Amino acid sequence: MRIAAAVLAGAVLALLASFGVVRVVTTSEKDPVAKPLYNYGTR
């Protein structure tokens, strides 16, 4: 019975951890800036 409870608790913790990591990664991404590359620098 203890093993089943430990497996269930581990699965829940792994699910919550992966969900949290995915959420942090997706909220930290910003839209890429689309700037034209022509007239870049001085010639």
Write the SSE topology.
Blueprint: H1 2-28
Task: Summarize the entry for a quick read.
With 43 residues, the chain is mainly α.
Q: How would the global form be characterised?
A: rod-shaped
Low-confidence runs: none
Strand content: under 5%
Mean pLDDT reading: 80
Question: Helical content, roughly?
Answer: 55-70%
Query: Biggest sheet, open or closed, and with what strands and sense?
Result: none
What oligomerization state is this entry in? Answer: single chain
Q: Strand-and-helix sequence, N→C?
A: H
Total count of helical runs of at least 4 residues: 1
- First-residue to last-residue Cα separation: 74 Å
Structural class: mainly alpha
Give a count of the beta strands, DSSP E runs of length 2 or more: 0
> Could you tell me the radius of gyration in angstroms?
22 Å
